[in-house]
Amino acid sequence: MHIQNHFFVMPYSNLSSVLDAAALTPLMTQANNLQTATASHSVNLTSVEIAGMYKMNEKRQALGTRGIQIAETNASLVPSFLNVAEAKKDMERFINSFALESKLEQILMGIRHGRMASGSEVMLFIRGFYKALESASEQNVAGAKALYDELAVFYDLPSKPDAGEGSGEA
Description:
This protein has five helices and two strands, in the order E-E-H-H-H-H-H. By secondary structure, it is mainly α.
């Protein structure tokens, strides 16, 4: 790690892998297979449905588990319009879906951070190259001014990293 303009720039040694079309294709195939495999366990909810439903958190998970246990051992107290077996299946699906979701979020976070780190490395390169073109242009190096002007249209980088895309993500 070294200091550049009062912020830390980290070399990402594991970003030396190539993620080109040849490497991406089998990963996308596996992702598509996973999407197909989980389709029967997935539900697409509208924002209205989400807003109107009960949400289960850790405390409510314990309530659900214990409530189902009590209902099983006290069947005579369970109204006929409630189905303990279905509630057990829903609870098991919730617990196992949460485990799968957590694993996928770990994978997604690693991919997201890899993308962010790669983008940062590119922007560091572009920043240095842009400054080199500026210097070459000032020295009247043939062709440098036209290239500098071409990149100037896109160049809006601050002197140090901003709180742009991905900021606040762990």
